[in-house]
Specification:
Layout lengths: L1 E2 L7 E3 L3 H18 L28 E4 L4 E4 L12 E9 L5 H6 L9 H5 L3 E6 L2 E2 L13 E2 L2 H8 L4 E3 L9 H11 L7 E2 L1 E2 L2 H4 L3 E5 L2 E9 L7 H4 L7 E2 L6 H12 L5 E7 L10 H13 L3 E5 L7 E4 L2 E4 L4 E3 L9 E10 L2 E13 L2 E4 L2 H13 L1 H4 L20
Parallel strand pairs: 5-6, 5-19, 6-9, 7-8, 9-10, 13-15, 15-16, 16-18
Antiparallel strand pairs: 1-2, 2-12, 3-4, 5-20, 11-14, 12-13, 17-18, 20-21, 21-22
């Protein structure tokens, strides 16, 4: 299925693995007719190779069969840089929309107006939506429960967000009734949702989007469940729920990543993992990120700690262990520290990253400037130490713009 959402600058693909390659050929032609490529207006340093050298590394070709038409199509061999065009992808953290129901009811498009220029300036933007989305339902037996109406998706879309993950420990907070609404919004709402599904196949399915000729896959998965809800909330072949990386379900995500890798140029996994209030990643976060890189991920970003954690390279792959709160009502000053991570990537090559700092005021993020931005840049840079990550990719001459602030 091909969907054009709002801004006609992207063609968004929500496809099963078997059909994606066939549809991609048609989408390239559609893009040429629509002229809907989006130009990045960001300030982060990037490195691109517009003329692709197919001998630079092993070529990639794939053949798929559209099960609905039994038509076989072979894609043109592509190397690690894909179309050769650099794409900027932005990421932001925990967003529950607490206390914003009134604003969402009045004018969803203005709720995130302060941070919208940062979010919309990227070619592609992804956020963790940490709440049960929809209407109705009953709070589940857990300490904290978050819920937000469908208009939250409208607010995110208006601010420039293109896709959200609901694979977290709050996605089913209001039980099966509201989760049914969430599932109906998965592909029909204001923006696509990943990490949930009516079964495991849907929950572990990535959202695939073509930007500047690059095929980009975005996964969502959760590693944190309340002990009494693990089995009830995990998507299986016969049960709706959330994509999980707990126990044997980790292998499901790794298999999905391996299956998708040959079909796309850039592969991203957004994980909900780690331990709350910690500013350094734990061993499980490091282990899971490395496993995903080995399976074929290029970028791994995370949430759940409600604190910022280190961002940097492991080898040539980029990990952001924790993006902190974003649209939230934190109970401490440190919990209000937030921002947007902007990553420049050319195919499977991660070129650079940039942290754009912000501060949460009345539940919404507001970008920082001047000396305040500089101070937050320094804090984020220092977090790389205990995260064990590097400022630049190994075996690369690319300069990372991780210390630049918002202008």
């Amino acid at each position: 299925m091909v969907m054009i959402h709002g801004k006609a600058r992207r063609v968004l693909l929500v496809l099963g693995h078997s059909a994606r390659t066939v549809a991609a050929v048609a989408v390239v032609g559609a893009l040429a007719l629509l002229g809907c490529s989006k130009n990045s207006q960001g300030t982060g340093a990037t490195s691109s190779n517009a003329t692709h050298n197919s001998t630079e590394a092993t070529q990639r070709s794939s053949t798929s069969v559209d099960s609905s038409t039994s038509t076989t199509s072979t894609t043109e061999a592509r190397g690690p840089l894909g179309s050769g065009q650099t794409v900027t992808i932005a990421f932001a953290g925990d967003s529950s929309f607490q206390g914003l129901d009134g604003a969402l009811a009045t004018d969803p498009s203005s709720v995130l107006k302060a941070i919208a220029p940062v979010l919309s300036s990227a070619d592609l933007t992804m956020v963790n939506l940490e709440a049960a989305v929809g209407s109705g339902g009953t709070p589940q037996n857990k300490t904290f429960t978050f819920a937000t109406p469908p208009s939250a998706l409208e607010a995110l879309a208006a601010a420039g967000v293109d896709v959200v993950t609901m694979a977290n420990n709050h996605g089913m907070d209001y039980g099966p009734d509201r989760f049914t609404t969430s599932l109906s919004l998965r592909t029909t709402g204001a923006i696509p949702i990943v990490g949930i599904g009516s079964n495991a196949s849907e929950a572990y399915q990535p959202h695939v989007v073509e930007v500047k000729g690059q095929q980009i896959a975005l996964f969502g998965a959760n590693d944190v469940f309340d002990a009494n809800l693990v089995s009830k909330w995990t998507a299986t072949d016969s049960q709706p729920g959330i994509a999980s990386t707990k126990d044997s379900h980790e292998q499901q995500l790794l298999d999905a990543v391996r299956t998708t890798r040959p079909e796309v140029d850039t592969l991203v996994v957004f994980l909900h993992y780690g331990r709350e209030t910690q500013t350094c990643p734990n061993s499980r976060q490091v282990e899971l990120a490395k496993a995903l890189f080995a399976a074929g991920a290029d970028i791994v970003v995370g949430s759940h700690a409600h604190r910022l954690q280190g961002v940097g390279f492991i080898g040539e792959k980029l990990v952001a262990y924790g993006l902190g709160n974003f649209i939230f009502h934190p109970g401490s000053a440190v919990g209000r520290e937030t921002g947007v991570l902007r990553v420049s990537v050319t195919g499977s090559r991660v070129d650079s990253f940039e942290w754009v700092p912000a501060r949460i005021n009345n539940g919404v993020p507001v970008p920082l400037t001047g000396t305040q931005a500089d101070a937050e840049q320094t804090k984020m840079k220092n977090l790389a130490g205990c995260a064990g990550v590097n400022a630049e990719p190994e075996n690369s001459e690319v300069t990372t713009s991780s210390t630049k602030g918002a202008s």
